[in-house]
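QA checklist item 7 of 12: single-chain prediction sanity check.
[x] sequence parsed
[x] length recorded as 322
[x] structure emitted
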Amino acid sequence: MSVTDVTARISQIQAQLALLPSSSSTSVGASGFSSVLSRTSATAGTTVTGGTGAVSGDAIVAKAKEMLGLPYVWGGTDPERGVDCSGLVQSVYSSFGIDLPRLSADQARAGRPVASMNDVRPGDLIAWDNSSRNNGADHIAIYAGNGQMIEAPRPGGKVQLVPVTTPPDYIRRVLPDAATTSTVSATTTSVRTVPAGTPYADLFQQAATAHGLDPALLAAVAKQESGFDPQAVSPAGAQGLMQLMPGTAQGLGVTNPFDPAQAIGGAAQLLDSLMGRFGSTELALAAYNAGPGAVLRYDGIPPYPETQAYVKSIMSQLEAAA
């Protein structure tokens, strides 16, 4: 089989994976189908609340630089053994509790568009569509500032810091602008309180104040997720009052998801990040339930009955608490 045939087959598989309905079904090495070619584009130093507190573009870049010299591994997501281009991006962002899709094409639809390289900031994603055989980006990198990017370039290569020499086809900002964060905080910082008699009311109030959220929203999520049971464990393995998956909890810095204070604090961080990323309570809730990848894939609330009922139930609780 020739190199051309192999490339064509990879593109076909990538396109098929992108059509799968579940975010978990696209997670098995999907980004290994990233292009072996390299291009660039991006954005500079914004701040968002993520898994470890305030996450800046510079912090994203610093984390990516820790992987310099790591071998390119097709389909790789292991920051110790090797990554491909989208594995690099996913791994770096997940270190801050920010969940990005596995495929480079989906990553290049994450967040919101940046107009041009004139507006690019460190931590922005820059991506290229190098092949007409697939739909969307097939190579992605992290903009590092000063006209440079960090990428996992090709089989046989290593994660490297190199100049951006080709204008990217996509520039996306996952982290919210500082102005956006301030606006969200100013408009949602709680003047409301949780309904009388709500368990853990003080913890909801404290976490909401810290992250500029409505405490009634956190309480409604806890009621929907666990019925306020701090020891709840779902069949899928979600744990505690806020039903955090172990990997998500770890990314949020939650060492004990069965501790109500930690669980509520972690959930507040996550919801704050999702609100900034998707720009609405409904989409943030959908991402909390089904994962950000599903929201990106369907460009809205996924058509999963469970997720649609979940969002509707919590929004109804908020309306009743208003």
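[x] summary fact logged: Strands lie at 47-50, 53-56, 77-78, 82-83, 112-113, 125-128, 139-145, 148-151, 160-163, 170-173.
[ ] second reviewer sign-off
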